[in-house]
Fold this protein.
Amino acid sequence: MRKWFFILALTALFFLPIGAGAKTEIKFSSVSVQLWPEFDKPSMLVIYEIALSEDTALPLDLNFRMPADGTLHVIAVGSTPETVSDTGVVYEVDAGSLWTTVSIKSVSQRVIRIEHYDNLEKQGNARHYLYRWPSDYAVDSFAIRFQMPVDASELQTVPALNTSFAGDFGLTYYAEDFGSLPAGQAFTLEVDYQKTTDTLSVSGPNIQPAEDLTNAPGRVTLAKYIPWVLGGLGILLILFGLAGGLVYWQGRVRGPSTEARKHHAPRREANGEQSGAIYCHQCGRRAQPGDVFCRACGTRMRRGEQ
């Protein structure tokens, strides 16, 4: 019995390192690195768009390194670069002396977007930045695109970025495809340029979108609704005018108000009394309606002779 137990224990120990040490090989089919200096902050915005190779099994946990002085901005995952989202993304951050390791948990989509800010060296008008690729994974296609900020000139990069074009935000971009990079192979890009102001690219006076957004889907423009607003105001003015005219017309038809009639009635009665009063020509006493003789002296009243 002890003999069989000993054999089984040896067999388990033999297979355990193989099972525990087995890891899914992670490979990137493409990595696009975008460097946007002084874009919305006075630092370097680094944007990674990473596509996992088709033979990389999912889901998986992915560890990614960024400079220790950097600040993580966002992590998003999706099936395509256009559909990535940070909703439901779980990750942990482990800060070290040289690198900060970001551990993204249970990645189930093949496109990963990572954004972080990094320090940008400034001396007067001179700007300097050194980019380092972490090189933890093999890459089939590695490319870099640099965004030239506003009021900047005299760009120099090592290695060179030979392709330039006008892109988003009305800015000029410089790009280069460096092909495949094996895991563990170091890659750096050194950037120098001159900038006469501290103006950020997103707040620059000459920044325009790369395309006309007037007719973009979902965009609401005020000019589209101005005719409807003016038409509604016109209808309201007409209704108010009709209501005012109706009130004025009803007031004219009804004539003077009851209060006005009450006010003038006593005046007419007073006038009537004064004009129809009869007094005795003998003693001067005022006669009552219907009197033939004066009630004071008995003299016959003279009606119609006053």
